[in-house]
Each structure stands twice: as C-alpha cells, then as structure tokens.
C-alpha cells in the first residue's frame, strides 16, 4: 500500500501548483512535503512531478494522482454505506461546525456550452468539491474512458464500460450573426453556400464541428470558410454580436442578444439539436446520487427532448 | 525555402483537425494533401503531425506551423507597406466582393476574464482572422516569449524582447459569494480568516492565484481553504451565485448578480485591482496598428487607472 500521507502531498501539489502552497494547505513545512514526494518517487521508481510553474504531473504522476483521488472516493462511499459520516479534513480537528475540507472531490468532464448555460446550479445539490474539466461534447466521454473523471456530460449515447448512462435532453444551437454582418456578407439574397465559404465564421477549437454540421444540415454542403478561433462560450456570443463572424450559439445564451436585435438567426427553420447524456462511474453511483438527480432535473428544465 | 503549398497544407490540417477537412478547405483531394505533408516531413526529416482525432502537431510540426504563420504575416506586412493590397485567398479567384479567406490570421494570448468582459468588441476593428489562446494573465506573456502568439494581454509590465508594451488599465475583482453561502459559512461575524479556511472557494485552475492574493491583501493571512476547480469566467459567477463557493469575480461580470442580490461582496472596502498590459510583436506592429488602437480604447473605457 502506498502511504496515504504521501498521496495527499502529491494531490495537494498537483491541485495547487506548488510545493509551497501544498505545504500551507497541509499544515506542513515545505521540506516535509518534499520528503514525502521523494519517498513516493523512490517507491514508484520514476519522477512524479515536473517542477515547473505551476507544477505538473508526469505521466506516472498523473496515474498516481488518479489513484489517490480514487482511494478517497472509495473510502467516502464506504463511509456513506456504513453510515459513519465523513472523515474529518486533514486540518479540521479542533474546528467546530461545517468544514468543506472533509468533502470528497469529484472530477467531472463537461462541455463548455452546458457549463455556460444550465449545468452549474445542479452542482449545488450536494456536499462535494467539484473539479470541472471542460472539453467538447464529442470528446468528454474519452476522459471517462481514460479513468480521469468520475462523470461526464457527453453527446455519446453508448455507455462507457463501468458507467451508467442517462439521457439528459438536447441542447439547441442557432446559427447566428449580427445584422451588420449579415448585410455585409450575405446581402439581399440571404445566406447561401457561396456566402458561407467567404464569410468569417467562429470556431471554438479544432474539435468543434458544429458550424460544419449545421452547414451540412442546412445546405447539404460541406463548409470550408475562413474562421476565427475562440475557445469561450460567452465570447462566442459576444464575437457574433460584435460582427466578427457567424457561429453556432446555444439558444439560451444567444437569447438576450437576439431579443435586443444585436444578433439575428441565419436560417430560422434550421436549428441544430445536440443530444446530451450523463455518464457516471458505477464506483461512485450511490455517492453521486444527489448530483445525478439534480443534473437530470436541471437538464429536464433547460433542454429539449432528444429527437 | 519550404514549399508554400506544403506549409499551407500543414496549417490547414492543424487548424481544422483532419486531412479530410484540410483538403476540402484547400480545394484539393485528400491524397494531394497527404502527399504535401509527406514531402514536407521528408524534407524536415521527422513527423510533423500526430494522426489523432483531431490531428495535433508534433514538437517539430508546431515549430513549422509557427513559421508558416510568420511568413504569411510578413508578406501581409510587406503588401501593406507597398500599398498593393491583400493577396487573394487560395480559393478566391473567380469570386467577387469581400472574401475573408484572404485576411491575415493573428494569434493572440488573452486572459479569460478580459475575454469575458471588455476585450472582444475591440477585435472588430480590422480585417483579421483572430486565433485566441486563453491563459492566466500571469502566464499569457510566456506565449509571446515562446513565439507562439503575436500579441498578448498580460499582467506583466516588462516588455518581452522584440515587443512593445502598452499599459491598458486595471481589471477590478471583487470577492463574492451568495447571501445563503455567507450565512452558512461566515454567519453573524462576517468573513474571518478562520471562516475562509473552512468555506469552499472557487479556483479557475492551478495558475489562478487571485483568491490567495485577495486573502493576503484583506487579512494578511495565506489561504489554504478547500476549493472547487472551474475553468470558465462566466461559470465562476454562476457558481458563486448558486452557492457553491466564494471567488474573485471581475466587477463587470458580477454586476448583474450583485444588483439582483444573488451575489454579495465579501469585504466591500477591499477590491483587488489587476493591472493589464498589451504586448505586441514589433514584427507586426504596423499591420496590427488598428487592433492595438481599438484594444487601448476599449480598455480605457472598461478598466480602471493602474494604481
């Protein structure tokens, strides 16, 4: 068995980016933290931490970090089952009342547009510390497959091995641009495939296929237009409203700008509905039950039925 | 000299994530694109692209990609100086009127909170395709040092070699939480150092030092509280309003929730002002002049004087 205090030191460094902050967090001297990491690295036989600013995990370090998180969750699940309550946090002895340092930490992969629209309030449902990883809905389930998160919101409807999968609903996207942009690039005739090849579009990152999927659905043509690259959901709406480009924005996020006529829908009869699913590891199914329930309920209120 | 058509194929693949989409973008067959990459890789003597989904650059590939972008910008700067206008885009011959495919692409590193508040409308100033990289304000200048971007918004006031540096103003942050959160975690006595050690806070990522800096400024104590991890500016505000944790939010972003009393300022006399600077590479100084001017003006309207 690895020494839990060494594992805790590793987690604290990787979460907080430095030996110094980890030491403060754990109430230890910095040399005590260094010593724990040295012993852990000797036992594993390879460096676990890249001493950069901030500190990062080596490949082996990332694997050991996952193991440390896993142990903590498993113990929490055991305590829940036995009804013996939460373990006091490392520094919690002597304090009275609530202390979030004893809460279990759960890592979840979520797509940026869910995070920007409906997802967050659901997390207020339980006493957890959430560590959110943001990735494209077509790739978020990969984090679960690699064992790097405990739950994910993904467009994949097929359950990942060892996980349950619940349908959440469809997030509706509208192709939007500013009225000035439409006049400049599409003119009287409105949006055409030729216009789309010349007009600047917005792309979230290299994983973002939404603009192309919409063009295929709306016009049956593939899209090869020039693009801005903009990895932020809110900035996507702002950039469309500022006339930088056209892009696929979640209906809810675009609604205020649409109401104020700072944005216009490019083809009103042609929204793009992206189905979303909640994947959750069976190893934390009971522990996460209140979160799962809150996520499903929030999704039911905010999303459309899956086509 | 490297073959410009081979460099264009590399850029198109890395920007769009696949050989197939690059081929469509360039109006070529996929095998023609593969052939260009093969020849380029033979010339360099090492693989340039990792054939994953999406395709990513090897270390050498990233270097050649930067070179390709640099060439394009240099030529654009030359054309501006000679007054001979823009090069037509690869597919633009035969089309009439505006075509954004001929616009130069400029990569800029920007901190998430500037992107979420005041930065974007400034980009509507010129005919560029922007490729935004988001990083912490304490680290965004590193992208410029590494030559991976042409401009950056950074908290660093010292010019990077080969770059100009203009002061923009200070982005004001407020320590905020929901009223329920304050009652639960801080109670009658209000925020205290002891309360901050027990209450869950919000942290953007391992580079985010704002919560700690505020606690040091407000109480003279270092912070080692439990934290949620949440890499999104808007989600930071939403999470605070949902009662998940307290965190440093930009004044402008928190304003609506503060006005609706969904958020409360933790210590009203203790904001945190973060000075920001615009760094721009001298190699594109003239070309970028309209953008620089728009950024400086937008900052003057949105930010506070640097203390």
UniProtKB/TrEMBL annotation, chains A, B:
PANTHER family: HTH-TYPE TRANSCRIPTIONAL REGULATOR ARGP, TRANSCRIPTIONAL REGULATOR
Entries under SUPFAM superfamilies matching the protein: Periplasmic binding protein-like II, Winged helix' DNA-binding domain
InterPro entries attached to this UniProt entry: ArgP, LTTR, LysR_HTH_N, LysR_subst-bd, WH-like_DNA-bd_sf, WH_DNA-bd_sf
Residue stretches making up the HTH lysR-type domain: 2-58
Name this polypeptide is given: LysR family transcriptional regulator ArgP
Species of the source: Rhizobium glycinendophyticum
Pfam families reported for this sequence: HTH_1, LysR_substrate
Classification lineage: Bacteria, Pseudomonadati, Pseudomonadota, Alphaproteobacteria, Hyphomicrobiales
Family (UniProt): Belongs to the LysR transcriptional regulatory family.
Keywords: DNA-binding, Transcription, Transcription regulation
GO MF annotation terms: DNA binding; DNA-binding transcription factor activity
